[in-house]
TrEMBL record:
Belongs to the heat shock protein 70 family. Pfam families: HSP70. PANTHER family: HEAT SHOCK PROTEIN 70KDA (PTHR19375). This is Heat shock protein 70. It is found in: Endoplasmic reticulum lumen. Gene3D superfamilies: 1.20.1270.10, Substrate Binding Domain Of DNAk, Chain A, domain 1.
Length: 180
Protein backbone atom coordinates (compact mmCIF):
# COMPACT_ATOMS: atom_id res chain seq x y z
CA UNK A 1 0.00 0.00 0.00
CA UNK A 2 1.50 3.27 -1.07
CA UNK A 3 -1.04 5.44 0.71
CA UNK A 4 -4.64 5.84 1.84
CA UNK A 5 -7.21 8.56 2.03
CA UNK A 6 -10.95 8.83 2.64
CA UNK A 7 -13.59 10.55 0.57
CA UNK A 8 -16.14 11.71 3.14
CA UNK A 9 -19.48 13.51 3.24
CA UNK A 10 -21.04 11.39 0.53
CA UNK A 11 -24.82 11.47 1.15
CA UNK A 12 -26.60 8.12 1.64
CA UNK A 13 -27.79 6.66 -1.65
CA UNK A 14 -28.66 3.27 -3.11
CA UNK A 15 -25.78 1.10 -4.24
CA UNK A 16 -24.38 2.20 -7.57
CA UNK A 17 -25.92 5.68 -7.49
CA UNK A 18 -22.92 7.70 -6.23
CA UNK A 19 -20.46 8.29 -9.03
CA UNK A 20 -16.86 8.61 -7.95
CA UNK A 21 -14.26 9.68 -10.47
CA UNK A 22 -10.74 8.56 -9.59
CA UNK A 23 -7.80 10.11 -11.42
CA UNK A 24 -4.18 8.92 -11.32
CA UNK A 25 -1.44 11.31 -12.44
CA UNK A 26 2.28 10.52 -12.56
CA UNK A 27 4.72 13.30 -13.33
CA UNK A 28 8.20 13.01 -14.85
CA UNK A 29 9.75 12.73 -11.37
CA UNK A 30 7.70 9.65 -10.54
CA UNK A 31 5.38 11.51 -8.17
CA UNK A 32 1.91 9.96 -8.12
CA UNK A 33 -1.17 12.07 -7.43
CA UNK A 34 -4.45 10.26 -6.86
CA UNK A 35 -7.67 12.30 -6.78
CA UNK A 36 -11.17 11.07 -6.01
CA UNK A 37 -14.23 13.24 -6.63
CA UNK A 38 -17.91 12.55 -5.91
CA UNK A 39 -19.63 13.80 -9.07
CA UNK A 40 -22.89 14.55 -7.24
CA UNK A 41 -21.53 16.69 -4.40
CA UNK A 42 -18.25 17.78 -6.03
CA UNK A 43 -16.58 16.65 -2.79
CA UNK A 44 -12.93 15.93 -3.58
CA UNK A 45 -9.87 14.52 -1.86
CA UNK A 46 -6.39 13.57 -3.02
CA UNK A 47 -3.07 12.13 -1.96
CA UNK A 48 0.42 12.70 -3.32
CA UNK A 49 2.92 9.86 -3.19
CA UNK A 50 6.53 10.85 -3.74
CA UNK A 51 8.83 8.57 -5.67
CA UNK A 52 10.89 7.82 -2.56
CA UNK A 53 7.91 7.27 -0.25
CA UNK A 54 7.37 3.64 0.73
CA UNK A 55 9.96 2.39 -1.71
CA UNK A 56 12.33 -0.40 -0.88
CA UNK A 57 16.05 0.16 -1.00
CA UNK A 58 18.10 -1.99 -3.39
CA UNK A 59 19.50 -3.77 -0.32
CA UNK A 60 15.98 -4.55 0.92
CA UNK A 61 15.02 -5.87 -2.51
CA UNK A 62 18.11 -8.10 -2.66
CA UNK A 63 17.45 -9.40 0.86
CA UNK A 64 13.83 -10.17 0.01
CA UNK A 65 14.84 -12.03 -3.16
CA UNK A 66 17.39 -14.12 -1.24
CA UNK A 67 14.84 -14.85 1.49
CA UNK A 68 12.25 -15.93 -1.07
CA UNK A 69 14.76 -18.28 -2.72
CA UNK A 70 15.76 -19.73 0.65
CA UNK A 71 12.16 -20.22 1.75
CA UNK A 72 11.06 -21.59 -1.64
CA UNK A 73 13.09 -24.74 -1.00
CA UNK A 74 11.61 -25.11 2.48
CA UNK A 75 8.10 -24.49 1.10
CA UNK A 76 8.63 -27.16 -1.57
CA UNK A 77 9.70 -29.66 1.10
CA UNK A 78 6.61 -28.89 3.18
CA UNK A 79 4.39 -29.22 0.11
CA UNK A 80 5.98 -32.56 -0.82
CA UNK A 81 5.45 -33.86 2.73
CA UNK A 82 1.83 -32.72 2.75
CA UNK A 83 1.28 -34.32 -0.68
CA UNK A 84 2.73 -37.63 0.57
CA UNK A 85 0.49 -37.50 3.66
CA UNK A 86 -2.55 -36.72 1.52
CA UNK A 87 -1.73 -39.61 -0.85
CA UNK A 88 -1.51 -42.09 2.02
CA UNK A 89 -4.63 -40.71 3.67
CA UNK A 90 -6.64 -40.68 0.41
CA UNK A 91 -5.56 -44.21 -0.45
CA UNK A 92 -6.49 -45.53 3.01
CA UNK A 93 -9.88 -43.80 3.09
CA UNK A 94 -10.65 -44.81 -0.50
CA UNK A 95 -10.01 -48.43 0.44
CA UNK A 96 -12.12 -48.07 3.58
CA UNK A 97 -15.01 -46.67 1.55
CA UNK A 98 -14.79 -49.39 -1.07
CA UNK A 99 -14.61 -52.13 1.55
CA UNK A 100 -17.87 -50.92 3.08
CA UNK A 101 -19.61 -50.84 -0.33
CA UNK A 102 -21.14 -54.20 -1.32
CA UNK A 103 -21.07 -53.12 -4.98
CA UNK A 104 -17.32 -52.57 -4.86
CA UNK A 105 -14.61 -54.42 -2.94
CA UNK A 106 -16.86 -55.09 0.04
CA UNK A 107 -18.95 -57.54 -1.94
CA UNK A 108 -16.17 -59.11 -4.01
CA UNK A 109 -13.51 -60.08 -1.48
CA UNK A 110 -13.44 -63.15 0.72
CA UNK A 111 -14.00 -62.47 4.41
CA UNK A 112 -10.34 -63.20 5.12
CA UNK A 113 -9.03 -60.84 2.42
CA UNK A 114 -11.51 -58.16 3.42
CA UNK A 115 -10.43 -58.42 7.06
CA UNK A 116 -6.74 -58.30 6.09
CA UNK A 117 -7.25 -55.06 4.16
CA UNK A 118 -9.55 -53.56 6.82
CA UNK A 119 -6.97 -54.17 9.53
CA UNK A 120 -4.16 -52.71 7.42
CA UNK A 121 -6.27 -49.66 6.54
CA UNK A 122 -7.30 -49.04 10.16
CA UNK A 123 -3.70 -49.40 11.28
CA UNK A 124 -2.58 -46.78 8.73
CA UNK A 125 -5.40 -44.39 9.60
CA UNK A 126 -4.50 -44.58 13.30
CA UNK A 127 -0.84 -44.12 12.44
CA UNK A 128 -1.61 -41.02 10.33
CA UNK A 129 -3.68 -39.50 13.14
CA UNK A 130 -0.87 -39.93 15.66
CA UNK A 131 1.94 -38.93 13.26
CA UNK A 132 0.61 -35.76 11.61
CA UNK A 133 4.13 -34.38 11.08
CA UNK A 134 5.91 -37.51 9.88
CA UNK A 135 8.64 -36.96 7.30
CA UNK A 136 8.05 -37.63 3.61
CA UNK A 137 10.09 -40.85 3.48
CA UNK A 138 8.17 -42.39 6.39
CA UNK A 139 4.84 -41.42 4.80
CA UNK A 140 5.85 -42.97 1.48
CA UNK A 141 7.03 -46.11 3.27
CA UNK A 142 3.67 -46.48 5.03
CA UNK A 143 1.82 -46.11 1.73
CA UNK A 144 4.13 -48.72 0.21
CA UNK A 145 3.43 -51.09 3.12
CA UNK A 146 -0.31 -50.69 2.62
CA UNK A 147 0.04 -51.25 -1.13
CA UNK A 148 2.11 -54.40 -0.49
CA UNK A 149 -0.81 -55.82 1.49
CA UNK A 150 -3.58 -54.66 -0.85
CA UNK A 151 -2.03 -55.20 -4.30
CA UNK A 152 -1.71 -59.01 -4.14
CA UNK A 153 -5.29 -59.32 -2.91
CA UNK A 154 -6.64 -57.06 -5.66
CA UNK A 155 -4.51 -58.82 -8.26
CA UNK A 156 -5.85 -62.18 -7.07
CA UNK A 157 -9.41 -60.83 -7.23
CA UNK A 158 -9.03 -59.64 -10.80
CA UNK A 159 -7.17 -62.80 -11.72
CA UNK A 160 -10.23 -64.80 -10.63
CA UNK A 161 -12.68 -62.60 -12.50
CA UNK A 162 -10.58 -62.47 -15.69
CA UNK A 163 -9.06 -65.94 -15.87
CA UNK A 164 -8.51 -65.78 -19.65
CA UNK A 165 -5.67 -63.29 -19.52
CA UNK A 166 -4.46 -63.63 -15.94
CA UNK A 167 -3.71 -59.91 -15.99
CA UNK A 168 -5.75 -57.50 -13.91
CA UNK A 169 -7.60 -54.89 -15.95
CA UNK A 170 -6.18 -51.41 -15.92
CA UNK A 171 -6.92 -50.15 -12.47
CA UNK A 172 -5.77 -47.54 -10.06
CA UNK A 173 -5.43 -49.46 -6.84
CA UNK A 174 -2.24 -47.53 -6.14
CA UNK A 175 -3.91 -44.15 -6.60
CA UNK A 176 -6.27 -42.02 -4.61
CA UNK A 177 -9.43 -42.21 -6.70
CA UNK A 178 -12.53 -44.25 -6.01
CA UNK A 179 -12.19 -46.98 -8.65
CA UNK A 180 -10.39 -50.22 -7.91
Amino acid sequence: VLGRFDLTDIPPAPRGVPQIEVTFEIDVNGILKVTAEDKGTRNKNNIVINSNTNRLSPEDIDRMIKDSEKFADEDRKVKDRVDAKNELESYAYSLKTQLSDKEKLGGKLSDTDKQTIEEAVEEQIKWIESNQYADIDTLKEHKKQLEEIVTPIITKLYGQSDSTSGVPPESSYGHDDESL
